[in-house]
Amino acid sequence: MPYIATPGLRVHVIDEGEHDPLVLLHGFPLSHEMWDAQRREFRNTHRVIIPDLRGFGRSTSQDEIVSMDQFADDVAALLEAMDISQPVMLCGLSMGGYIAMALARRYPQRLGRLILTNTKSLPDTQEAATNRERMANLVLKEGPTPLVAAMMPRLFGPRTNEHRPQVVDAVRNVMLANSSRAIAAAQRGMAIRPDSTPSLKEITVPTLVIASEHDAISPPEEMRTFAAEIPHCEFVLIPGVGHMTPMEAPQEFNAAVRSWLQRTA
Ligand code: MLT
Known about the structure:
- By secondary structure, this protein is of the alpha/beta class.
- Helix content is 46%, strand content 18%.
- It has helices at 36-42, 68-81, 95-106, 126-142, 145-155, 158-163, 165-177, 180-191, 197-200, 220-227, 245-248, 250-263, and strands at residues 3-6, 9-16, 21-25, 47-51, 88-93, 111-117, 207-212, 233-238.
- Helix 2 packs across helix 3 (95-106).
- It is globular and about 50 Å long.
- D-malate (MLT) is lined by residues 27-28, 94-95, 190, 217.
C-alpha cells in the first residue's frame, strides 16, 4: 500500500510491521530513505510508518509555501486515512522535529510518545529567514544543486566524512532528487515557523531528545536546553557524529531508541 489518498494530497508512505505505530518524519530536503536503518530495525517490533512529506520523495505537490502546521496537518490526515486512532510514537529529525512539535501543539491526542532528534525549538533569526528566501529563489532558478552544495559541509561529523562516503553520497543523491518547488516551499515554511519553546512544557507524553556531538545545525547544548523544558524528557548525546545521527550512527541511535521505548512502555 505505497500511496494513501488524503484530502488534497496523495502521500507516498512506507507501512511495514505490526503492533504499535512508530511514525518517522524525515528532515529537509530528504525523504523516507533517510530512515532505512530504523525501518529495518523496528519493523520487527512495531508498525513503522514513514511518509514522504508533502512535495518530497514520491509525494508530489505544487505548493509555493508549506508551513510546519501544514505538514503536521498532513501527518494527522494520513493517520486518519490509515484508520489509526491510537496515539502513536512520533519521531522527527530536524525539519521533521519542527513538524513533530507542531503536531504536539495541534493534535496532542495523537501522541503516545515523542522522539526529537537533531532539531531545534527556536524559530529562525531574521538573517536565517532572509537566507532561506534567497536560497528558495536560487533553487527555483537553478535546481537543488546550490542548496545541496551549501548544506553538505554542515551535515556530517568528521568520522562519517572520512570513513563512510556511502552515507554522504546517499544523502546527496536523495537531496538532488527532490523537486525545486518542494525545496523552496519548505524553506519558506521553515522561515515562518513559530517559536516552539513556550509550548514544550505542555508536552505530557514521555519524550526522548537525541543530540549529537558534532551537529553544526542543531547544536547539542541548545538541544539540552530545550529538552529541560519538556516535563517527562530524557536527553541522550551521541558522540562522534553530526546532524544525520540516524544514518551516521544507526546502531547507537537505534539502541538509544529501543532502550528508551522499553523503559517507557
Ligand atoms: C533539516 O535537516 O531538516 C534542516 O537542516 C532543517 C533546517 O534547515 O532548519
